From TrEMBL:
One of its GO terms (molecular function) is aspartic-type endopeptidase activity. This is Leader peptidase (Prepilin peptidase) / N-methyltransferase. Pfam families: A24_N_bact (PF06750), Peptidase_A24 (PF01478). It comes from [Clostridium] aminophilum. Residues 15-97 form the Prepilin peptidase A24 N-terminal domain. Residues 108-237 form the Prepilin type IV endopeptidase peptidase domain. It is found in: Cell membrane. It is a multi-pass membrane protein. It comes from the Bacteria. Keywords: Cell membrane, Membrane, Methyltransferase, Transferase, Transmembrane, Transmembrane helix. GO terms for biological process: methylation; signal peptide processing.
């Protein structure tokens, strides 16, 4: 069994890094207004089409010492960093949820957040279509996830299927209320902040992303996500050493961390409040 588990995790890493390579290309084309469906991958410096050898995730960059084979131009390490992070993201999803519906949902959510972050890093914009994709993913998968959770938690209880309609309704309602609470709170805070500092703090895309986090994580999880994203944002701002940093990548990372590993922390602080 350990071999099988290791094998699955290795496959997950390579699948993730291959997707990461595709995401780099996708984000680049969104920022530069090129279609993802047309034309082959090309070197960002000289425009030479890339061959198979140049397209192996992670390895190509190390094999070619971070340079383009055709123009010898330096290829930014950020591409390989993105591939490694994407591989790691897939691995964490599988580690957390095994091979379940939840894993499929987590991986898809990760993919949307990942491309959105790459685009935000480059253009300081979060395209609405990614927010919409994340909302649609939530709405479509919620009944399946609730069913899967109900089945595993209490397969012996007979009234699970009976009350299932009510359970789904409650899930939609709770998620929507949490989304509005988290997104609304961040909107108010950012408006106050903008007034006080006279600068724009959060963009519209950031607020929408917090709304989406509330849907998936609930109000308590959403609050944790806000705190973690501020923490990551501070580190990120320190590392980047620039005045203005896009906040989307920090929110996305916090969203994913809370989604995968937030439950014990949320239970702990709710117990402190006596809930
Ligand atoms: Zn080149």
């Amino acid at each position: 069994m350990p071999f099988l588990a290791a094998y699955i995790l290795i496959v997950a890493f390579f699948a993730g890094s291959a997707f990461g390579s595709f995401f780099n290309c996708w984000a680049w084309r969104i920022v530069h207004h090129e279609s993802i469906l047309h034309g082959r991958s090309h070197c960002p410096a000289c425009g030479h089409p890339l061959g198979v050898l140049d397209l192996i995730p992670v390895f190509s960059w190390f094999l070619l010492h971070g340079k383009c084979r055709y123009c010898n131009g330096k290829i930014s390490p950020r591409y390989v960093i993105a591939e490694i992070l994407s591989g790691a993201g897939f691995v964490l999803c599988v580690l957390r949820f095994g091979l379940t519906m939840e894993t499929a949902r987590a991986v898809l959510l990760f993919c949307f957040l990942f491309v959105l972050s790459l685009v935000d890093l480059e253009s300081y914009l979060i395209p609405d279509r990614f927010i919409l994709a994340i909302l649609a993913l939530w709405a479509v998968t919620l009944p399946m996830i609730l069913r899967e959770q109900a089945m595993t938690a209490m397969s012996a209880m007979e009234n699970v299927t009976e009350n299932f309609g009510a359970l789904i309704g409650k899930g939609y309602l709770l998620g929507t209320v949490s989304g509005i609470a988290v997104g609304g709170a961040m909107l108010i805070i950012s408006l106050i902040f903008d007034r006080v500092t006279g600068k724009e703090s959060l963009g519209g895309g950031d607020i929408k992303l917090f709304f989406a986090a509330g849907l998936y994580l609930g109000a308590a999880g959403g609050l944790l996500c806000v705190m973690v994203s501020c923490f990551i944002g501070l580190i990120f701002a320190f590392l980047m050493r620039q005045e203005r940093i896009p906040f989307g990548p920090s929110i996305s990372a916090a969203f994913m961390i809370t989604f995968l590993f937030g439950d014990p922390v949320i239970r702990w602080y709710l117990s402190l409040l006596g809930v």
